[in-house]
Write a structure and sequence with these properties.
6 helices; five-stranded mixed β-barrel; alpha+beta; single chain; nine-stranded mixed beta sheet
């Protein structure tokens, strides 16, 4: 069989092939079938039913049809969608991740879609991400839909965060930059109202320190900064609000920002020189830069610099 890229010679012939394509099911270049227009009115499985109330879905491996609004596009990876008021249970998330790079190249934020796929938990650790994979069909039903958003506040425990997995949320409270350890990767950590102490600063090692570590975890959120955000954040700076999607990088839940944070820098004070008979001691964490063998070798190491030059 041979094919030709020449245009159809007559409108009648073109109509014939278009009808044949519709009967066979229209396919995108990557293989996704465009669902019929009737799919937009057909019943679907609520996203909240797919998510369920626990850490992992009870529908893993099942094929479902769902509907939702595209809220976040990950180029080359997938799309997050959210279904408003998917159910009345506050313990179940109304959002879901669609693990399909082709969808990410086709959709825009604010498009309401229906999609067929298989329910899967992505990730190996305790904080997995409920998703649809092996997606076979999709249809855009509406465009320009306002993006949903849910207000919340820190502290949030593990169950409360799970109940908002993949949803767009807004923290309407005073927050503090409590950690900039991963700022070079465009990541910081925000906490409720004040800088969090290291557990053993305020608690004895052991059970008390572990309890404080859990309190710190509940009172803070890891944040992935917007790529256009050129602000330099420092520990102790004040953030009046934060808005974004509760995504997952494969390790833990994070707030992925849509816009730069409303940010008030820390007031910098110049320390006077040490007085007569005083000694000032300063410490600085070099982040394992010098993990070689001390003779210019031993690189790369598991942590720290990748070369002697670094």
């Amino acid at each position: 069989m041979t094919t030709s890229s020449k245009p159809f010679k007559t409108p009648l012939l073109a109509a014939f092939f278009c009808c044949a394509a519709l009967l066979a099911g229209c396919r995108s270049p990557g293989g996704l079938v465009e669902l019929p227009v009737e799919a937009c009115e057909q019943s679907t499985t609520p996203i909240a039913s797919v998510q369920g109330p626990g850490d992992r879905t009870a529908l893993s491996g099942e094929s479902v049809k769902i509907r939702g609004i595209a809220t976040w596009i990950e180029p080359g990876a997938g799309v997050y969608i959210e279904e408003l008021a998917s159910d009345a249970d506050p313990a179940t998330s109304n959002a879901l991740y669609l693990d399909n790079a082709e969808l990410a190249s086709m959709l825009l934020k604010g498009e309401r879609i229906v999609v067929d796929g298989t329910v899967t938990e992505l990730g190996e650790g305790p904080d997995t991400l409920t998703a649809l994979t092996t997606i076979t069909g999709m249809r855009v039903c509406e465009r320009g839909v306002p993006l949903p958003i849910s207000e919340t506040r820190l502290p949030l425990d593990r169950d409360e965060r799970e109940a908002m997995e993949a949803m767009t949320v807004s923290f309407r409270q005073a927050l503090a930059v409590t950690d900039v350890y991963r700022f070079s990767d465009d990541r910081i950590r925000l906490s409720a109202s004040h800088i969090l102490p290291a557990p053993t600063e305020v608690a004895r090692p052991g059970a008390d320190a572990r309890k404080q570590a859990r309190l710190n975890q509940d009172a803070s959120i890891h944040v992935l900064l917007d790529t256009d955000d050129q602000q330099v954040y420092s520990v102790g700076a004040t953030v009046m609000a934060a808005e974004g999607l509760l995504g997952n990088d494969g390790r833990y839940q994070q707030l992925w920002l849509r816009d730069p944070l409303p940010y008030t820098p820390v007031v910098q004070y110049r320390n006077p020189p040490p007085g007569e008979g005083e000694t000032r001691i300063v410490s600085f964490n070099l982040r394992n830069y010098f993990n070689g063998d001390g003779q210019g070798r031993g690189f790369p190491t598991e942590r720290g610099a990748r070369s002697a030059a670094a």
